[in-house]
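A favour, since you know our structure tokens better than I do. Would you make up a two-line entry for one protein for me to read? Write everything out right here, beneath this request.
=====
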Amino acid sequence: MMKTKKILTLLLIICMVSALSIMTACSNTKKQTEDLSTKLNSKLDAYKTDLQDSASTMNTNANIKSYLTSWAESKGISYTTDSAGNVIMTVKAGKDYKSAAPTVILCPYDKNQFSNYINPIAMALYTVKNNENTGKLTVIFTQEAGHDFSGVKSLSSKYFTDDSNVFCLNGGQKGLFALKSGASSTYTFTEAVDHKTPSYTKAYKITITGLPGGQPDSKISKVVNPITKLESLLASLKSSSIGYELASFNGGNDSTLYAKSASITIVVDADKETSFKEKMDSQTQKFNEKNKDDLPGAKYSYKAVAMPSSVLTTESCSKFVSFMYTLFDGVYHGSNNSDNNNDETMAINSIGTIRTTDTSIVINSVAYSLDKATLSEIDSGNKTLCSLSDVSYKKTGSIDLWTGKSNSAFAKAVSDAYDKYTSQALTYTDSVTSSSASFIKQKNKKCNIMCITVNDNVVKDCTGTLVTFLQNSNSTSK
């Protein structure tokens, strides 16, 4: 009986010790997460604020590169640069993480969309400086000109070993973790035009400026495209019997980005000038009032200008307006609800630039699709439209569809890190926008890859998840 009591007592002690160990582990884990969250709240905001305060000087890629290298020097972080403008920062593995797989973070930068990249840049800077002495970490800031992946394409495959865990960061309106990103096509449409001396006598320049730009994504239906907005105005003037002649139409800086501004110069029938001004007053006031909160920098305006020396002929103008009316811009296939997380069949097309010259009107656009067949359909549709409209068609570039492994140990480890940091389950959402993952896969098919699109709403959770993943990257770590 005494032996039985001793055994029961011993079992009770073991259970109490085990329970205490579990409670201590849980307490330590909770404290570690709270400490990380506290640090993130202060330091990440500081990084973002400094980037925002420096935005006016980030008007060239050389200046952004200089900012990044100066930052690395001031923080004592080892770095190199290459001929493509990439900045490569490295941190050696800590003593308890010698056996951990290396982690690579790719973060783009671009003067054309610097504000769009503030969140991912801040995330990358925080992680490389505050990785808590974990496994080997390489953070590569890749130079872009628009969403062209020029820096990523030039990277050596030496950075991407078979056991590498690669995170491809991006900025966007919709924050997400993705194991699939869209294929893309870029297009150039050229209409030959003829000019004549203006028949009307009142010239006006109409502009939309101050839009945020950025990359087309699944929220495209909620974005103002100033190019299509002004094209709709031309059609509206015609339906209102307000005679006009088109002198110029210019907007956007890159086919792969939303246009930040656009303008047209037209010559109006003097007999219809009063009607024209009343219409423009109504349209500009309505637009500016509607968007003053969500787009505080945006402005729709018009003003009288000097008479242009020439305008498009009636035939050229009519042909152009008809073509623009039928050229697709928006959600091509999928839900028009941009908050829908089910993007598996999503496809979009965005008109990015337009330019008038003495001999032509040139339009550039980009299409993204999570399905190869749908992208091929968009290619064929644009080509057919051009053929029917007597407009020159050229497909100028393409990017392959990328798909990762949803059932991999890597994906589970990221999910576990997200759950640990946020106390929520992670849902992977496909990115309709093309990513650098497609090019990393070409460099090494064996490495693990994941895409993270970062915005203001998710940047802290994404950064916390990434640091937690690094902390968990070695089972022997303390």
Observations:
- The longest helix spans residues 2-53.
- DSSP finds eleven helices and 20 strands in the chain.
- Residues 417 and 472 are 8 Å apart (CA to CA).
- The two ends are 43 Å apart (CA to CA).
